[in-house]
Amino acid sequence: GGGWFGGEPVDVLKILQLHSLPEGVKKVPGFCSQRGAGSDVAYRINRQAQLSAPTRQLFAGKFPEDFSIMALVKAKPGIQAFLLSIYNQDGIQQLGVELGRSPVFLYEDQHGRPAPEDYPLFRGVDLADGKWHRVALSVSRRSATLLVDCRQQETRPLPRSARPVLDTRGITVFGTRILDEEVFQGDIQQLLIAADPQAAFDYCEHYGPSCAATAAGGPQAQEPPRQRQEVCVGGGHTRFSLGMEWGEPPRPQPQGPPQGRHPEKTTDDEHGTRLRQIPREGEIPREPSREWGSPRKQQDGVEPPPREWGQEPRQQLPAGRERPRVHPSVRPSHHGATR
């Protein structure tokens, strides 16, 4: 299992067995085109990838109160999806790192704090522009700081409990949230979690690869522009190119209310890395107004207009918010679900 022995960060991609190239994952050149004898290796993730593991495989002991999450990632342009989701034993999502425009950091401790409307939201940042980015998130006490390409972007309050606990008895899911249609698509070379909030600030120096100083060994993608761009926030930046390879034209989505996937219980392979779902006939409509961050559908091939700058951000919830989504395989049996 994983853990924090020796202070080394947890290598999430290794634990999820990406090197064995499960369905939906293939090897591609990484961040540096030349490094020593060869190039970096990254993994291209498509919609078919379903990657998860028991959280205990990542963290043998308890999850640290203060920590860093670090990724070297090139997201498909326009996606809005969670790179990492950690669920508790009851299937409640307690941690999530979103990529896209104005990404959110989802965190909910054992007392349900903070509430979804208080999740840190990083406006003016776009982590899905088709370029390589070194993304580092530092969580310390009651704040979360985002660093992108070795430059600090923003520190946001994280109003959690005095002694926050995250449960390690559930599962960790890569690239999506349970029951979410939005999935990560793109290339990823590194995903690390360290029990040290300072690690995010040292990511480029200590953990993230820096390419050779020769022209041939430069990064594959251009360095992103140094100025920050303001972008629209809110529910209007959902991608509509569901189920396609890069560069294909968008497929119109069927009309009607958003559909919720109604999954069967999990069937794990030997590494615990598969999540199965029953066919679409078994789906049940969900209430879009109650669902935090639910995608807005494309109808008749027309994209909905983007949410105007200055409108309420998407995580403002109506009264009586729903809890984060519950994964059926880890729901307590008294809820009437199969394990």
* Gyration radius, rounded: 19 Å
- pLDDT averaged over residues: 74
Q: Indicate the overall shape.
A: globular
CATH class: Mainly Beta
CATH architecture: Sandwich
Proportion of strand residues: 15-25%
DSSP summary: helix tally: 3
Q: How many individual domains?
A: 1
Helix/strand/pairing category:
mainly beta
Unreliable residue runs: 1-6, 221-254, 257-299, 307-323, 325-339
What sequence of helices (H) and strands (E) makes up the elements? EHEEEHEEEEEEEEEHEE
Task: Describe the oligomeric state of these chains in a short phrase.
Answer: single chain
Helix content: under 10%
Distance between the termini: 23 Å
- Under CATH, the topology can be stated as Jelly Rolls
Largest sheet, if any?
Answer: 8 strands, antiparallel
- Number of separate strands: 15
Quick summary:
It is built from three helices and 15 strands. With 339 residues, it is mainly beta.
Model description:
- This protein has 339 residues and is mainly beta.
- It has one domain: Jelly Rolls (Sandwich).
- Helix content is 4%, strand content 24%.
- It is built from 3 helices and 15 strands.
- The chain has helices at residues 12-15, 55-58, 203-207; strands at residues 10-11, 25-29, 41-45, 51-54, 67-75, 81-87, 93-99, 105-107, 133-140, 143-148, 151-157, 171-174, 186-194, 259-260, 284-285.
- Strands 1, 2, 3, 5, 9, 10, 11 and 13 form an 8-stranded antiparallel sheet that branches. A 5-stranded antiparallel sheet has the order 4-12-6-7-8. Strands 14-15 form a two-stranded antiparallel sheet.
- A hairpin with a 5-residue loop joins strand 6 (81-87) and strand 7.
- The longest helix is centred in the middle third of the chain and has 5 residues, at 203-207.
- The chain is globular, with a radius of gyration of 19 Å.
